[in-house]
Design a protein that fits this description.
Rossmann fold; 7-stranded parallel beta sheet; 281 residues; alpha/beta
Length: 281
Amino acid sequence: MGKLDGKVAVITGAASGMGRASALRFAKEGAAVVIADLNSQAGEQTISEITAGGGRAVFQHTDVGSEKHLKALFDRALDEYGRLDITFNNAGLGGATGKLSEISAEDWDKTFVILTRAVFLGIRFSIEPMRKAGGGSIISTASVGALRPAAGLHAYCAAKAAVVSLTQSAAIELGQHNIRVNCICPGGIVTPLVYKGMPGGEEEARRNMARQQPIPRAGNPEDIAAMATFLASDDAEWITGTSMVVDGGMNTGNSRISFAPGFSGPSFQRRDRTGEPHRAR
């Protein structure tokens, strides 16, 4: 018997990284999963892996920067499975980076659209179906950068801090409907968002991240999937308004070495070298 038997989940940014790992874990635990991402090919591959293992899942091409796309995503979940129990607002990007004097207002706004407004909309579109279902669990991806800001990541850290605050205020409002609202603050997790375009790629990212916190290994997407599964399950039925730090101890400030060249700070989030943002983590 799985921890999420009979539940229906929506996960954004679920074609790779933390979202994909969470989709696979949720399905293994018995949930029907609606996978949302910009990357249709990778999304369909995730669906195939889930269904091959006997799970239930569908893919919805989604740009979380579009309110219309997000509304269609939640409508799809209701059309396919008739209810909604879990929302994981996970999609993200590195966003505007650099000195404050060099960041344009346009890039700043784009960062907040994906990292903060999309979370607001994900919460908003979850309320009514979860209320009708008798409750639910809303989870959002924040960052240790929300708790320990880093130079050069002003927009990212500010947007993630807003997610932490929104998590708390939403928990206050929605608790009366048995809707729990929490966020996860990952540390250095090895995902395509981190290592794509980085010299040395995934292997180099793992070597450097292994030395950024007391536990001497890089974080894996499965570490976040485990926390998301817990928060989505009935085991966490009395937990709401909380920021769950999953970072190997990074938030203690006790790095085993100083940050290596090429890393932007404790969240390790960045654009690739083409300048294209990533929406799956």
